[in-house]
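Following up on my earlier thread - several people asked me to post the actual chain instead of describing it. Fair enough. Here it is, all 244 residues.
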Amino acid sequence: MSIADVVGVKLAGLLFDAGTVNSPVLLQVGTKNSHKSDSADPTSIQDVFFRIGGATPGQATTSLQVDSDNVIIDDIWAWRADHGNGVGWTSNTADTGVIVNGDDVKAYGLFVEHFQKFEVIWNGRDGEDVFFQNEMPYDPPSQSAWMSSPTTPGYAAFLVKPRAKGFQGWGMGSYSFFNQGVPIFAAQAFESPASGVDFHNVFTIFLDKVHGSGGINSVINGVGVPSVAGNADTPIDVNQYPSP
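Reply from S.P.:
Thanks for posting it. Predicted structure:
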């Protein structure tokens, strides 16, 4: 589904199920780089959910791509299935749950889980996210299969790109449960520029020290101690980034 560069669209109460033929994007809002919007009559995306596998096999590169400015996102669950039908590292393939390219986009309640690369990518200026819940993919078969660069293990759950000056994040958490019996690590849960952004109360948690392995080496940009089996089920919190 695509929404044109128009103002005041209200999209609510939908479930997108990916099909067996890969979809580049399941829902695209506006046209990239058009910057057409009206802050007095914004488009809103409310209670919209995306499922990649689980009910039936499915594939989609990106679930939600927001290209318009001033969009309000309220309660999004983008889920690459970790159980059910058609589930596996090479079966229900999906790179990213949410990409925000528009400026002045506000998100309230992002639930984005198990995608195979960056789960959320935020490119738009002056954006804001209030509440983010994430579980990294359970099923990378090896560390070499899950590297964001030749020297960076894993992918951050939430990537804020250098263009996204003015971004604010509040109450954002990422959990790890790598369950393939091999040690898998992510360098950080949150990755962003070192200035021009503000994060408040971001954290990581290692789930299930009996069946999980590996972990998350830092909360954000190398700040915050590793979240591993030794401190399982304990939030590793960074109250403010950058530090005041």
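The chain has a mean pLDDT of 97. That should answer part of your original question.
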